[in-house]
Write a structure and sequence with these properties.
It holds the Pfam family THAP. The chain has about 750 residues and is α+β, with helices and mostly antiparallel strands. The protein is built from 32 helices and ten strands.
C-alpha cells in the first residue's frame, strides 16, 4: 500500500510522488514535536510506537540539510531532525517553538470528536474512517498494516514486472560492466538500473524490502533472478500450449543452430491449427545441442512432453532448417523420432525452398563454400542501396546487348534471390557481374566505400574467383534443375501441392538417369564450368586443400576426374537420397489425402479413392467406421449440390464452411493434414515468431543473448499475469526468501 503524509493539508502519497516518507520517531520528546508541528491534535493521544508504525511525514516538510541519501535506494533523516516546513505559514514550527496554534487542531479535534459521539460505536467510527480515507476526504491518511507475506508478494510482483518488460522490449539484463569483466564502467546492469529507477519513482514495496535488508547494490541475487526467469518461461509456455492441447495435433520445426548463453542451441517451433482454424507456428524455446543423437533425441522429446506438456503420440510432422554438419546430426534425430512415432513424418519446411534445403544438407567442401558465399552476398548487399546500385551497373556492363536479360537479373536482385527455387541458375547468370562489382568495390579508387565494405568485397571476390566455387555452382544448378519445378509446386496452392506428390516419381527417375550416366553429364557440366571460368580469367585447378590432405604420391590428378569424384557424384547421389527420405510412403499418402479439398475433387472429376491414403490416420478419425459413408456424402455434396458455386480450394477455406461440422471425420482429417510443415503459413499474424527470432539474433550481441529473455521477446503478444507468476514462484521455490543472498 502507498504511504500518505500525515501533515495537515498535505495530500502527497508514495504512489504519485518520488519523495521519501519518514516514520515518526520513537523518542517521546521528538515525537511530540513532530505531532505539534504537523498540526495534528488528534494524534496527541497516540503513543510514539503507534505513530512510528502507522504514520509518515514526506520529505517536503524537512530542511534539506536534515536529509541524507546513504545509498541509491535509502534516504534517512538526521537523528535530531524536526519537521519545520508546512504549506500554511501560521502552522509552521521551528525546533525551538513551544507555542501551539489551536485553530486547525481544534477543527481537526472537533471533527474527530464528532466521529466518536456516543451514538456511534467503535466499529462505525472505524468504518467511516476507512471510507473517508479511500475517498480522499478523511484526515488520517495512514496506511494499513502490511503483513510480511503480502509485502513479499508485492515485492516479487514488482521484480517480475521489470523482468517481463525488459524481455518484451529486448533490453539485455546486463550492462556495460557485464560485457567486460575488468571494465571500470559506472553503469550498473540494466536490471539493477531499472529497479533503482522504480524505487525512486515510488515503488514502496521494493523500497520496504530493501530497507529491511543490508544496504547493497545487488538488489536481486543471480539465483533468484534465474528462478524468476524459469517461472516466466513456464508461464509463457503454458499460455502458448493451451490452444495446442485443445487442437491435439501438432508438428515440430527445428531451425538453424544458434549460440545462446555460450552454448549451441536449436530453436524449436511448434505448428498447430488453432480454434479459428488458422495454421500457426510458435516458438517454444532453445534445445541444447550437446551429446550424441540419442541424447539430443531424448532431450527434444523431454522438451515437448515435460516442458510443453504435449503428447508425442499426436505429433504428425517434422521439419528442420539446419545446414552443414549440424544438419546431418539433426536429420538423424528426427529420423529417430520417426522410428518411435511413425506418423511424425519428415517433410520439407514451407519457409525454405526445396533446392536450398537440399543444398544446405550437403556437407561437401565445395557446397559449403557456395552456400556460405551466397549468405555473405545477401548480407553484403542489404547494407546499403548504393551497393545494390553498384551491382546494377555491373549487370548493365555485362549485358549491354541483352537489355531484357539485364532487367530480369536486376529485378531478381531486389528479391531474396539467394533463397529462391532458382537460386543457382540466377547465381550462374550473375557470376560475371558479381565479380566485377566486388573487384570495383575492393579497388575503391574513388574512396567511395569504407574499409570494412572494401574488405568484405575482397573476401567475397576471392571466393567467387575460385574454380571450386564455379564448378560446384554449375553442378548444383544442373542437378537441382530437376527438382526446381517440383519444389516450387510444394510451396504453391493446395492443388499444386497435391499434384506435386504424383510428380516425385518423375523427378527421382530423372536424377537416377543422371547418376547412371554420370560420365556423360559430368563431361558437359565440367565443360560449362571451364568456359565460365575462362570468361572470368579463373584458372582451372584442383583445390590446394586436396594436396595438403593427401600424402605426396607423385601422381597428378586431373581436375576433371577430381571434380567428378568430389563434387558431381556426391551432389547427385545426395539429392536422390534426400528426396527419398523427405518423401516417405506416409508423407506421400498424406499429400494424396488432400483430394478431400472440394476444388481438388472437382479437378479430379470426383473420381478419387481417399480410403487407401487415409488409412494411416484411421486412429485420428472421430468415428472410423462411418468414414466411408461420410466420404460418399461429402463427394455428393460437392458434385451435385453446388451448381455455379466456387469450390473451396484450400484446407482453411474448407474448414470455414458452416456445414463442415456435419462431416466430423473429414474435418478431423483435414486438421491433421494442415499441421504438416510443408504447408505455408498464409496468415501474417500467425508467422511472426520466426521473424522475431531473426530480429532478436540480429539485434542482440552474442554475450547479451539469454534463452529466457528471447522467449519473452519472441512471444511478446502473450498476456502476462504477474499475480500468477508470483504464485507459481512461491509454489516452485517455497523455501526461497525473496531478499536472500545479498552479498
Amino acid at each position: 500500500m502507498p504511504n500518505f503524509c500525515a501533515a495537515l493539508n498535505c495530500s502527497r502519497n508514495s504512489t504519485h510522488s518520488v519523495l521519501a516518507f519518514f516514520r515518526f520517531p520513537r523518542d517521546p520528546e521528538r515525537c511530540k514535536k513532530w505531532v505539534e508541528n504537523c498540526s495534528r491534535s488528534d494524534l496527541k493521544d497516540k503513543t510514539p510506537d503507534h505513530l512510528n508504525k502507522y504514520h509518515r511525514l514526506c520529505a517536503r516538510h524537512f530542511e534539506p540539510n536534515l536529509i541524507t541519501k546513504t545509498s541509491p535506494f535509502r534516504t534517512v533523516l538526521k537523528d535530531n531532525a524536526i519537521p519545520t516546513i508546512f504549506d500554511n505559514p501560521s502552522l509552521k514550527r521551528s525546533n525551538n517553538e513551544q507555542t501551539e496554534n489551536m485553530d486547525a487542531p481544534e477543527a481537526k479535534k472537533s471533527k474527530a470528536d464528532s466521529q466518536s459521539e456516543p451514538a456511534k460505536d467503535n466499529s462505525e467510527a472505524t468504518t467511516k474512517e476507512i471510507s473517508e480515507t479511500k475517498n480522499g476526504d478523511g484526515v488520517d491518511r495512514s496506511p494499513q498494516v502490511i503483513d510480511e507475506e503480502t509485502l513479499n508478494k508485492e515485492y516479487l510482483k514488482s521484480l517480475f514486472d521489470v523482468v517481463v518488460m525488459m524481455g518484451t522490449q529486448n533490453i539485455p539484463l546486463h550492462g556495460h560492466s557485464d560485457k567486460e569483466p575488468r571494465s571500470k564502467s559506472f553503469t550498473p546492469s540494466n536490471f539493477q538500473a531499472l529497479l533503482e529507477y522504480r524505487i525512486n519513482a515510488g515503488d514502496e514495496f521494493l523500497r520496504k524490502k530493501f530497507e529491511g535488508s543490508p544496504v547493497n547494490l545487488e538488489y536481486c541475487s543471480s539465483t533468484q533472478l534465474q528462478q524468476m526467469l524459469e517461472v516466466i518461461e513456464n508461464c509463457v509456455r503454458e499460455e502458448l500450449m493451451a490452444e495446442v492441447k485443445e487442437g491435439r495435433f501438432f508438428s515440430l520445426v527445428v531451425d538453424n543452430l544458434v549460440e545462446i548463453g555460450g552454448e549451441s542451441r536449436l530453436p524449436l517451433f511448434i505448428r498447430f491449427v488453432d480454434k479459428t482454424n488458422w495454421l500457426r507456428e510458435e516458438f517454444v524455446g532453445f534445445l541444447p545441442f550437446e551429446g550424441d543423437v540419442e541424447a539430443i533425441t531424448k532431450r527434444l522429446i523431454g522438451e515437448v512432453t515435460e516442458k510443453c506438456g504435449l503428447d508425442m503420440q499426436y505429433c504428425r510432422g517434422q521439419a528442420y532448417l539446419c545446414s552443414g554438419v549440424s544438419a546431418m546430426k539433426v536429420k538423424a534425430v528426427v529420423a529417430r523420432i520417426a522410428e518411435l512415432h511413425p506418423l511424425a513424418v519428415l517433410t520439407p519446411c514451407s519457409s525454405c525452398s526445396l533446392n536450398i534445403c537440399l543444398a544446405n544438407t550437403m556437407t561437401f567442401t565445395g557446397v559449403h563454400l557456395v552456400m556460405s558465399t551466397l549468405k555473405k552476398l545477401d548480407v553484403f548487399f542489404s547494407k546499403s542501396p548504393l551497393l545494390q546500385n553498384q551491382l546494377e551497373s555491373a549487370i548493365s556492363i555485362y549485358y549491354q546487348g541483352n537489355e531484357e536479360k539485364a532487367n530480369v537479373l536486376k529485378g531478381a536482385c531486389y528479391s531474396k534471390w539467394t533463397e529462391q527455387h532458382d537460386t543457382f541458375e540466377v547465381a550462374v547468370d550473375l557470376l560475371e557481374s558479381l565479380l566485377l562489382c566486388m573487384d570495383s568495390i575492393h579497388d575503391n579508387e574513388d574512396h567511395k566505400w569504407s574499409d570494412e565494405v572494401a574488405h568484405n568485397a575482397f573476401v567475397i571476390s576471392e571466393a567467387l574467383a575460385d574454380f571450386e566455387f564455379v564448378m560446384t555452382l554449375v553442378v548444383l544448378k544442373n542437378t537441382l534443375s530437376f527438382s526446381r519445378a517440383f519444389g516450387k509446386n510444394l510451396q504453391g496452392q493446395t492443388n499444386e501441392v497435391f499434384f506435386a506428390s504424383s510428380s516425385l516419381t518423375a523427378v527421382l527417375h530423372s536424377l537416377n538417369e543422371v547418376y547412371e550416366n554420370i560420365e556423360v553429364y559430368h563431361e558437359f557440366w565440367f565443360e560449362e564450368a571451364v568456359n565460365l571460368a575462362a570468361a572470368l580469367e579463373i584458372p582451372v585447378k584442383v583445390p590446394r586443400l586436396y594436396f595438403r590432405k593427401r600424402p605426396t604420391s607423385g601422381e597428378e590428378i586431373q581436375p576433371e576426374i577430381y571434380y567428378k569424384e568430389q563434387v558431381t557424384l556426391p551432389v547427385v547421389s545426395h539429392a536422390i537420397k534426400e528426396l527419398s527420405d523427405l518423401f516417405s510412403e506416409n508423407h506421400l499418402k498424406a499429400l494424396k489425402s488432400l483430394s478431400l479439398v472440394p476444388a481438388i475433387m472437382g479437378q479430379l472429376k470426383f473420381n478419387t479413392a481417399e480410403e487407401t491414403s487415409v488409412d494411416i490416420y484411421k486412429d485420428d478419425l472421430l468415428n472410423p467406421d462411418t468414414f466411408p459413408a461420410e466420404l460418399h456424402c461429402w463427394k455428393i455434396k460437392w458434385k451435385h449440390g453446388t451448381k455455379d458455386v466456387v469450390l473451396p480450394s484450400t484446407i482453411y477455406e474448407t474448414l470455414q464452411l458452416s456445414d463442415v461440422k456435419f462431416f466430423p471425420n473429414v474435418c478431423a482429417l483435414l486438421k491433421v493434414l494442415y499441421n504438416l510443415p510443408v504447408f505455408a503459413l498464409t496468415n501474417d499474424k500467425c508467422s511472426t515468431a520466426k521473424q522475431r527470432l531473426t530480429a532478436y539474433l540480429e539485434d542482440t550481441p552474442v554475450h547479451h543473448r539469454n534463452k529466457s529473455m528471447a522467449l519473452f521477446y519472441i512471444n511478446c503478444a502473450i498476456k502476462h499475469d504477474l499475480d500468477s507468476m508470483v504464485e507459481k514462484y512461491l509454489k516452485m521455490y517455497p523455501d526461497s526468501e525473496p531478499s536472500e543472498n545479498r552479498d
